[in-house]
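OP here, attaching both records as promised.
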Amino acid sequence: MLRVGLLFLLLSTTSLTVRAQHIDSTETPVDAFVDDVDTATATGEAIAERLIELQARPVDVNAATASELTAIPGLSLLLARRIVRHRSRRGRFSSPSDLLTVEGIDPQQYRRLRPFITTSHVVPKRPDAPTRPEPWSAAVRDAEIRTAYRWTRRLDLGRGYRPDSARTGYQGGPARHTSRAEITLGERLLAAAALDKDPGEAWRWDMTDRAPGFDHVAGTLAITDVGPISSIIIGDYTVSAGHGVALWRGPAFGKGRNAVDGILRDGRGIAPFASTEENRFFRGLALRIGTERWLQDRTWMPVASISSFISRRRLDASIDDRTDPLEPPWTNLSNTGLHRTPTERANRDAVTESVAGTLIKLEGKRWSVGGAALASTVDRRRVPRNRPSDAFDHAGRHLRIASLHAIVDAGPSILSGEIARGPGGSLAAVGGFAYQGANRVDLALHARHYAPEYDNRFGFGFSETAPQNETGLYLAARVRVHDHWSVIGYVDQYRFPWLRYNMPRPTTGRDVRLIVEHAPRPWLKHYVQLRTETKDQRIDGHTGPSPLATDGVAPETRSSVRWDVDYAWSDRLRLGTRLESVIAIPPGGSDTDRDKAHGTLLVQDVEWDVFERVRLIGRVALFETDGYEARLFAYERGPRYAFRVPALFGRGERSYLVLRAELTEHLLLEAKYAVTRYDDRVRIGSGRDEYVGNRVREVDLQLHWRFP
């Protein structure tokens, strides 16, 4: 703790003496959206990839619909509809900065949106008429090719990579290989592919076993404006509708520092997919037909669209051959995407899933209504595991889902909701309200209910865990106290009406967060965050009289305070400092020092443009906690598309250095070296990843090529 305190004092003194100029950073602000993700989940990686893709292909605010605009991080559904309404009344935006004329968009919010937006150069004769399709000749002239190759390796390996006579260890090498390729012809055509081999997976070049070298292959071909068809996608794609209660495949933003804007959703329909995320996508054919271009002389009429899709792909699943040796069923799907060991490889592609679905939407200037329906069939029947928490999980081969969703735009406020019918007639519903007026106060309210029987693997609605067996109420507010001061906060109260895994009775939870942001200068901004989470957990060692004993659960509380500052020392040097402290009280513990687990984290970041085309990004993080219960997290920068939020606990330090060098106008090299050292242990990790030593080193290399 002494060294943490001394370094904090030094860095604080340095930050107070800073005098700097404004730096126009184009770095994608991933940390604002994934900084609180506990582990490097597939969802978090998909969010990081989505932000990078948005920056590479910004959204055209002169042509995008309100639902397409909501895919931009930090842009609420209410503001997205205001942008569309402003465009309809006053004509198209001549430049991105014209968004400042839209009610509710201030300079600070515009700076957050700027990396993800652009304005088209095609201006129709009438200001309120839709943009005509880009001619193919112009699209070919705008052709662009992007490729990337990434190699990642942990240098200090666990015992899973040692020679194993029983062949129970990892079957492949420790490096991760990822390749990406993308060809675009303006706005008319996109062809993209992503290939990925995780650490521990073996190279297998057997096409009969669906193994083309890389363990995961995704590819898509998307074409827009093909006769009456607005868009058609062949290959891999995602589908999102409404609030995501019935259908949402792809990334979604939830609770975080941006507490107000991302809560109400409006799915953007079908979208091409070429990502390393191995689960949340469809594979087949999808198309959309819309009336936007057919109503050029009748803009008062609502816009109608219909999207249909079919998909067939193989899924990883756990097979239970003890129940029926002749036709063994599956118990649950595997979402890790890892195929390193014989057991993981046996679960690979164990189930074949066929899906067909339709989306319908009718949208006016102040309202929209829509519906989604899908039918899924798998070639093996499902038998849920025999445990109380799985009592309501869907069994069988067939799954049918249908939903209705609506939005009512009332100017300074907006109402939205969705209701869905799932397996066995089970119901799920969400409703939301948002307000943003001229009084510097923004509000958001979201209510949700997912029945215990609502077992829908295609949904991804706003929830604390999976959108099943949960009822909750979320309230958020943002107050712009001054031009440079904002106060943001939310309260999320939820309940699980049936048993969760390893819980002997229904449980409850509460999440409260308060953030005070201050940006006194263009080169200086900081915030203070207070957060407390309380969730019922099982008491270790409890031996109640029955599985439903009411005294086997007690609240677990985790409270934290964070101060984060970002400041520019000069045009080429940017610094950032974070100090965070956490206190964790275990289930059944009391508010005494004997039961509390404390943790402290100090992070110092440096971003230095050494030369015009060379940038260095570094970090030193010191942490000291009483155990895993007081773990701390901090999103790490790295090569593009990389995602890392390590859990830091114990006593030690983690540091890394990232090099970004533009070798030529078209070639970019990125390299990262990271090391974690512990002062309180001689073994790191567990299971096959256990390593004997007190440090872990990692290397990450990535090469990008773009033409022209």
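Record two, same layout:
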Amino acid sequence: MAFRIETKPAAILDFVADIRAAADSDKEALGFLPGSAYDQAVHKGELTIVLKGDAQDSKYAGHIWVSGTYPHARIVQLFVAQPFRGQKLSTRLLRAAIQTAEARGYLSIKANVAADLPANHVYEHHGFVVARTKPGGQARNRQIHVRARELSTPTLFNYRPLPSVPVGEASSSSDVQPLYLIDLNVFFDATRKRRATAAAEKILAAALNSGVRLAVTTEFVKELQRTTIGKDDPVLSFAKQLPSVAAPSQPEVASLAARLAPLVFADKARNGQLSPNDTSDLKHLAEAILVGAAGFVTSERAIIRAHADLVEQHRLSIWSTEDFATFVTPAFSELPANGHAEHDLAFTEEALSSEALAFLKTHGVTDSTVVAFQRRDAADRRFRYIAAREAKALIAFVAYRAATDPNDPAGLLLVADPRHPATPTALDFLIEHAVRASSLSRPSLIEMAHTDDQPVVRRTAIANGFLAAGTGNGSALRKMTVGTAVTPANWSILRDRIQRGAGFTLPADCPAFQDDEQEIGIALDGRAATVSLANLESMTAPGLFLLTGRPVAIVPIRRTWSEDLVGGAQLSLWPKPEAAFRSRRVYFASVANQHNLVKGRPIILYESGKQGGRGAAIAVARVSSAEAVSKSHAPDALLRAAVVRGSALNDLVKGTTVLAVWFDNIMRFENPVSFQRMESFGMADKTKLVKSHMLQFETAVKILDFGRPHAR
């Protein structure tokens, strides 16, 4: 009888006992996990099994369990039952897992395999290379191979933007640890004798020891305050110490929650039978998505069952309390420490020297590719070359070819030393610099040549919105860029320019704004697709889409920090803080702004008139995430992404807590907009822009149309 792969949770539930028994029979290879973990894995759609026989007479033959946090999948277990070994079932299971991960837009998949196990040969045969080796448990004194395989690059149809620029080689991590939100039941589990108390205590202990990065919403704290008896409740005190995040406006939360209802509570939503608790759960889920959390820990089974769809559509992993506690230590023990020294980076325009040529060839660039990016003669001005050095050592080199025709993409060749600790920051700057150079304040395309053995370059490009130009990992990458702000006033004109320059088509009319996750219908290469507003802006950055009625904030910055925060078109010979080289930077504000400066919010940057400042709006950007953190415990990753240092942070914002606002899509104004002119556009602010505040949509559009934001 034939073998078949089964992925449907309803069908797999009948074989959970077989899966558990198989795993328990080989604990040396697969480890020990509680029985409840397998049930949760089935509900989340993480288990795939291979069966022998037809639907009426099926026998368990093996399974693969794939978990992880976007964009990196992780194989928890791979097992084939003894009677069925030697029939290439491991291959079928691995291929099924890889195909599923690729369809969901994951960039890599890894597995931890003890160095002395035969399974290493299986993984090696399927392209899993040893990224590094680490010590295993003390009892057996084993070595563990961390094996990883790069997956096919995301396309428009499975694109999911990365939370930040990846660092390192095969098991990249972000600038900061992934953020997880916890629902109220986790706290109740930790403080009341309930079934999941031990698991909740483990999660909170991991948070206190920086093993996992937890946060709560401001609404969560308010709800906890309403249910707390007395002022000295330790649970409330702990909740107030956690970083907090604020969702956008209640209408935006309600809009997304309504669209999530059929995904999570299909039958109830269809019959109009959602309970108040269901509605509350949907709002909490919407908040987690809108603030950009990597995961949400909950006890609601309907949400857990929707895990696969929520990951695929909204990049949000769902965990039960027990599930999260089971994996919290192995899942986060491999993350690097928060801090490392700021790099002494320098970027200079240079010639394609013998040193540069040797560097390119050492890192895998072919002769034909070099020729394609080489000046024909001294009069050939199409090419620019920029070197990135750290302490005078060449660590990255970029060759940029300008487009010679509006329909011709610009070219990019970029290589880097993958082992140098400053490489991620250098790559982030070089890629963004090249993209901005290609836009010339108009929609355009830029194509990056493929180089073997440069996965860190490829992943950093993907983090900056590059998509596959073809199929497979060996294809070139392409980046669409809008290069300005698209508003209802210029929608028709820019729609035509975007179609000609960047190659995709927007809707005929400017849609009304709903929320950051609303779907926008576009067409690319003759194929129709729907892309969330957040994804569309990430893949076409720099560029913003001011849909009708979209909320916009204006924030003040001091002259001292404005140049490094906003950036400029020219390379500087003077030393700059690391933040000036990042596509995502941090702006510190008072926590009073927590409901204004939220993820996805466009912000107009106003340079104060004090201390020689211009007293004018000088740029527009987009909030990529915002989080209230303690000043005394601000992660080093935040400080390195900001231009404020040491005591300056204490002087900048009063109180013990500060709002750290990550922002991207930075575009400077061609015409700075004075305070007086903004008043003539309808801005009313008695504080003279000492504090951040919201703008009327019509006023924001007038400021942008006059300021003419551009990517250069």
